[in-house]
Amino acid sequence: MGDTPHRSADAGTGGTRVTQSHEWPAGASARVAEAPVSTRSPGGTGLGGGGALPRSRRFGAERAFRGLTLAAGTAVLVIIAAIAIFLVVKAVPALHANTENFWSYEGWSPNETEPKFGIGALAFGTVLSSALALLMAVPVALGIALYLSHYAPRRLGTALGFLIDLLAAVPSVVFGLWGRDVFSSPVRDFSVWLNQHFGWIPLFGGDGPFGASVMLGALVLAIMVLPIITSLSREVFLQTPTANEEAALALGATRWEMLRTAVLPYGRPGIIAAMMLGLGRALGETIALALTLGITFGISFNLIQNGGNTIAANIANAFGEANETGRGALIASGLVLFAITLIVNITARAIIYRRREFTESAA
Amino acid sequence: MAKRVSASNVTAYYGGFKAIENINLTVEPKTVTALIGPSGCGKSTFLRSINRMHEVLPGARVEGSLTIDDQDIYDRDVDVTAVRRTIGMVFQRPNPFPTMSIFENVVAGLKLNGVRKKSILEDAAEKALRAANLWGEVKDRLGKPGAGLSGGQQQRLCIARTIAVEPQVVLMDEPCSALDPISTLAIEDLMFQLKDKFTIIIVTHNMQQAARVSDRTAFFSIEKTGDPGRLIEYDNTQKIFSNPSVKKTEDYITGRFG
Questions:
Q1: Which candidate in B75, B79, B142, B174 could, as Cys together with B92 as Cys, close a disulfide (CB 3.0–4.6 Å)?
Q2: Residue B63 to residues A257, B8, B52, Cα–Cα distance (Å)
Q3: Which CATH superfamily includes the segment(s) A97-362?
């Protein structure tokens, strides 16, 4: 593109003198015409103008930046691989020392002379409490996000959005203490009520005591993941093209039908991503659950009796008193958590990938 | 099917800004009416107030009366969604729903009206796509995303989506401004066919287009920036383009006025 003007400028300086025009640029007109070219080769001597094109630089900002990004990308892989190797190396000796089945044994006493520990109950508790938390948090979060993005007056929406983001900045130990000392008593009362009226459902059965239960842990978790899911989905909902919202309205959609037709489908990949981030936080949450759960080692669907445990909470509770094998056992449990998180992420990717034809053309 | 649209003393605001003032005009059924005029003169605002899309924007409101066959669409008891179903709209830029297939796009309006039966939806989709001159091009790929079509096809898809709900009036807000001449021609041909069934009102910046497609033309203008747009002249298209009665109209259509 940039070549065309200065060639014609050379032609303008006179047919036979074309080659000379570089050594002593004769006409002012030629110089003016060449001026834009000089910005491309700031060296000063090579003003272009029919001479050889400047050589591409072998080392420069372009290359350096590419190297930096490559290094950053590689670092992620190296760190993940390092974590995986560390977990495996530390876990294997403890797994060998285990005298019970690691997958099915319901209990955790790796510090004995005959170490016995099993991941089943912990993994089950982790998935149960996280899934329950997500089940409670997602509808509320989507409701808040839709309200903030499409119903609330703009100022109120911004202010409330800010408040919700603040909720994400509260340290999890604060949530844990609040859950244990304050929130547990209403949850206990509610659990007793559930037990009296719906005790015939196994989820709400049992003879008590109630309170420090999976329900409490999941409720606290739900509050903790709420801001992540809310603010991400709100961002996505705000990005819905106005043209699509107007198209739905012009077809005679009510506000809610417009949200269902244009906004929610458009935001679907974003909602899934937000849910997965929330689930990731819930699965890995440590201290809040260590403080609120009843800490038992059994697989039970009962949500309201004292009990429940998760991998991360167990690590927090047991790490202090663990010996060599104990630490290895905890690290093995960490490896399982790592695998669960990985499976969750892969599933989420797969869901998004399945509809790529539609989401890509939307972008 | 087609209905008469009449506006009397329609004034529209964006917050404190008065965009159009005292528009009086009647559009006969089964005709094409073109709204022309310089940018910012309120053509689109007027068009959007005909199906109550104007009030979607925060702070926007309309005064005066707008009727379709003697029913006031701004009446307190009128359901706004019913108004928009009766008066369909095609937008400036093609806006198919990106997450939906071609088929889902066409029947989106019907689904909003509670039609669920597959056979009815399929018949309606074919009918609308045929009416929009798009059936032949997409009949083998109805399940593909609507956003994957070319710009002209997308706009015809949007027209199909609009007419699938069988409105009485179709509003078009510069429907060809984002399209190439061939697609534009396809849409203009389509307008000729559609006026057998619908009342069509189109906003256009292209005066040849107004002259080609419309039966009646309304010329809007403003005194200066910040003033509300007014209807300057409204007459048969032939008269407007050959022998306008207002000097300002003549200046505009002959290009002496920007």
A1: B174
A2: 27, 10, 11
A3: MetI-like (1.10.3720.10)
